[in-house]
Amino acid sequence: MSKILCIDFGTKRIGLSIPIRSIAFGLETVDYNHLIATIDKYIKNKYIDTLVIGHPLKSDKSLFPIEKDIIKFINFLKKKYPKLIIKRIDERFSSKIANYFLINSFLNKKKIKKRKKILDQISAILLLQDFLSNSSFTI
Q: Is the per-residue pLDDT at 61 higher than 50?
């Protein structure tokens, strides 16, 4: 049984989501500087064995510049946790869809900081739900 953590990677904030049964739920939003400590905590407590990380493709299938940071992060994790399974998923439009959801939701538009944190979690939820729907992983 896989224990999955999904990451919507950013240079400031990172949205995290987990599956409960076959449904993705937002876990938390962490600052970039706390990402490794957060992942260490989940691995140490045996909450995860698989990471799903967004693959930032443009509509023409070229990569966004943040991909370089993601590759460094993945290489670091592979060295630190060689048994950790790392999967990538196309994240085109996930942030736009999440933003559309927030704009049309019940949230007060004046609470921008809180909205940004929620936006990152919603993006991670969308990525994970897409992964779960299109994968043969057993939860």
A: yes
Rounded CA-CA distance 51/136 in Å is: 15
Report yes or no: 80 and 117 within 8 Å, Cβ to Cβ.
no
Is 80 exceeded by the pLDDT of residue 59?
no
For 22, counting Cβ atoms within 10 Å of its Cβ (0-12 exposed, 13-18 middle, 19+ buried), the class is: exposed
pTM recorded for the entire structure: 0.79
Measured distance CA(80)–CA(60) in Å, rounded: 34
Sheet of strand 13-20, all strands in order from the earlier edge strand to the far edge: 23-31, 13-20, 4-8, 50-55, 85-90
CB 78 within 8 A of CB 86: yes
Distance CA 46, CA 32 (A): 22
The helix or strand, by DSSP H or E, that contains position 29, with its residue range, turns out to be strand 23-31
